[in-house]
Amino acid sequence: MTSVRIGVMGGTFDPIHNGHLVAAAEVADRLDLDRVILCPAGQPWHRAAPPVAGVHDRFAMTELAARADPRFTASRVDIDRVGPTFTIDTLRDLRAGFAAHDPETSAEWYFITGADALDQFMTWKHPLEIVELAHLVGVTRPGHGLRNPDLPDGRWTLVEIPALDISSTRIRELLANGDPVDALVPAAVAQYMERHDLYRGGPS
Asked: Where does this protein act, in terms of pathway (predicted)?
């Protein structure tokens, strides 16, 4: 039986940007991942306000961004599911789909998120099952660690990446002001946002 190492990066991706892609590529390089699945959230459970762009636009941009690296793919698993997006459901569904599609291949799963998010990990839905399904990978800037590393031993890793001053909020603000964002997102994503007039009405 062959074996693969699969990373999963979830996010609102409103819009996806170069910071997300650099983080995914760095983790893939450091942990020798064969692929990274990018999963835009349907209804992020931790956000009071809904995403600015609709699910179909956010998935389309994620799919375009995934072309930046042959290891990347985009998944609709979270946007096609009804209800709030929880990590436990993402991992259950991806693992079940993989097993059904490729039963002769075993997989090691890695869930990639910001180290700041892992500080609140024990408040997530079914955290102990999550660490049974996937190894946690916290992405952080050099010199920064977990404030409260109350995580199961042996089931998490921190990966330092170069500090990139990019955020989806900042990109939306720039677009609302009519400023260019070409250096912050893949060219195909910039073209998509312009073509569909996304984020022009205000930063939100």
From this structure: Cofactor biosynthesis; NAD(+) biosynthesis
For residue 58, is it within any domain? Answer: yes
Q: What is the pLDDT of residues 40-83, one digit of tens each?
A: 999 877 666 778 999 999 999 999 999 999 999 999 999 999 99
Does residue 186 lie in a domain region? no
Q: pLDDT tens across 62-73, in order?
A: 999 999 999 999
> DSSP per residue over 121-176, as a string?
GGGSSSHHHHHHH-EEEEEE-TT---SS----TTSEEEEE-------HHHHHHHHH
What's the pTM value of the predicted model, to 2 decimals?
0.93
* Pairs from 113-117 (Cβ < 8 Å, separation ≥ 24): 113/9, 113/10, 113/137, 113/138, 113/139, 114/138, 114/139, 114/140, 115/139, 115/140, 115/144, 115/145, 115/146, 115/158, 116/140
Q: How many domains does the chain have?
A: 1
Residue 183 lies in a domain: no
Instruction: Pick the closest to residue 111 from 153, 85, 152, 139 (CA basis).
Output: 139
